[in-house]
Amino acid sequence: MPAKIKAFTISCILTVLIVSCDSKSVFDAYNSLPNNWHKDDVMSFTFDAPDTLNAYNLYVNLRNNNDYQYNNLFLITSLQYPNGKTFIDTLEYKMAAPDGKLLGTGFTDVKENKLWYKGYKAPFMFKEKGTYTVEIQQAMRKFGDVDGVETLEGVTEVGFRVEKN
Question: Considering its fold, how many domains does the chain have in total?
Fold first, then answer.
């Protein structure tokens, strides 16, 4: 087997092993966007509660690139419980340093941000067995404008993650 093929095969195997060793993950999904997020586009994630005994951390995951023009991000989130009760939050996240450099991880112009949703102040526990739905919508506004930013440029993917605490 030529050295290039052998090296490629080994790197593929290592990548699969590293990705599959994420023992904390209970649910992890992404919705792709065409490099922008329209204000009416609601990202929806449906999953079953892992249990009602243990604590979990819930995250909004966001991938953005250099087309993202803001130093923060406002989101409207809703968490619907199996019984139909829904909790709605408006959240703000810092997305850039004071010098304008985008925060997040990544070596290229695409940055991945793991943003706390639930579990950071107090442990989050699923109170009911069954199916939960999380919806996420961008709620950005330009300073002084009443109307929201219609299309938020630079957002390529929005995800949701549930991890064991």
Answer: 1
